[in-house]
Amino acid sequence: MLPDLNRLKVFFHIFNEQNSTAAAKKLHITQSGVSQHLKKLEEELQTELFTRVNRRLVPTAAGKKIYGIVKGFMDELEQGVRHINDGMETPSGPLRIGAPAEFGKIYLPPIFGSFRRRYPDVTMQLELDEPKILFEKVAAGKLDFAYIDILPFFIDTPGGAATYSIEPVVNEEFVLACSKEYYRARVNGTDYDQLKQLDFIGYKDDIALFRSWFKLHFNHEPQQLNLIFIADSSEAIVSAIKAGLGAGITVSHLMNREINTGKIVAIRPNEEKLQNTIACVQFKNKQPSITEQAFQEHFRLELNKNYTKLELK
């Protein structure tokens, strides 16, 4: 029968300190507790482990033999725990993160740069794509997590939304806007019938976002619109808006400067705002690594500190 491991631990410290009082301080227990553990261990082993000489506990031959066995185990245990703690305290290794194209290009590289200055052993693989694709890559385990647009209309997600942990990070406003010149020439009013007659700049031949915008402001959705320019990036949509091609919808922070200077006009029939939420998405039952947790916390802190134009959650 093996001796009690806790008593062996007490024995180990008595041997190192050669004094029960010093061992008690090391173990944060009472001196009488140390003495009781030693007494019971000697009873279990049926041998004396120390003799007392001038207030010192001098190990016997049996005590030295037991110490040789216990020391190897204690050293290996200490090194193993230290290795685990080092891995927990210091983020390292690859991060695979997804994000919307414009948001990812603007914010993630500099934020990762400041993160890597703290943790130089971390690398990043950044994938920029639309929400449905990012959900699929999280579901397939191709991404550790992703910052995804939670759009104001339903997206079919693998396994259903309940499969994921969806934690809002940033709120943005989707703005319908056009150039100052186009507004003066074509926008004769801001009621439903007048606005739906405009020329529109669309994202990938999809009017779902426009329908959500009209539904919010007028409680009515157009079944079709005159899409005269289609692009697959928000930057191209903003460029087309500035070129006077028509009215387009994209997030406000990409046009704030032009809106503030009057080069672009935001069309707002009322005070309602069509919100886009960017959320951190990962599997609900997935245990995030220390590296993932550290980056997500750093990401929030950096947004809060350096990107105050965003509405943070």
Structure at a glance:
The chain is α/β, with parallel strands linked by helices and 313 residues long.
Tally of discrete structural domains = 3
From the 3D coordinates, which CATH architecture of the largest domain would you assign? 3-Layer(aba) Sandwich
Uncertain segments of ≥5 residues (pLDDT<50)?
none
Number of helices: 12
- How far apart the termini lie comes to 58 Å
Report the sheet-strand fraction.
Answer: 15-25%
Order of helices and strands: HHHEEHEHEHEEHHEHEHEHEEHE
The first-level CATH class of the largest domain is given as Alpha Beta
Average of the residue pLDDT scores: 87
Shape: rod-shaped
What is the CATH fold-level name of the largest domain? D-Maltodextrin-Binding Protein, domain 2
Helix content: 40-55%
Structural class: alpha/beta
CATH homologous superfamily of the largest domain? Periplasmic binding protein-like II
The Rg value, from CA coordinates, equals: 33 Å
Summarize this structure as a short list of keywords or feature phrases:
single chain; 313 residues; alpha/beta; Arc Repressor Mutant, subunit A; D-Maltodextrin-Binding Protein, domain 2; 3 domains; ten-stranded mixed beta sheet; two-stranded antiparallel sheet; 12 strands; 24% strand
Please explain how this structure is put together.
There is one protein chain. By secondary structure, the protein is of the alpha/beta class. The chain has three domains: 5-89, Winged helix-like DNA-binding domain superfamily/Winged helix DNA-binding domain (Arc Repressor Mutant, subunit A), CATH 1.10.10; 93-171 and 276-312, Periplasmic binding protein-like II (D-Maltodextrin-Binding Protein, domain 2); 173-275, Periplasmic binding protein-like II (D-Maltodextrin-Binding Protein, domain 2), CATH 3.40.190.10. The protein is 47% helix and 24% strand. The chain has twelve helices and twelve strands. Strands 3, 4, 5, 6, 7, 8, 9, 10, 11 and 12 form a ten-stranded mixed sheet that branches. A two-stranded antiparallel ribbon has the order 1-2. A hairpin with a 2-residue loop joins strand 1 (50-53) and strand 2 (56-59). Helix 1 crosses helix 2 (20-27), helix 1 (5-17) crosses helix 3 (31-45) and helix 1 packs across helix 4 (61-89). The chain is rod-shaped. The two termini are 58 Å apart. The model has no long low-confidence stretch (mean pLDDT 87).
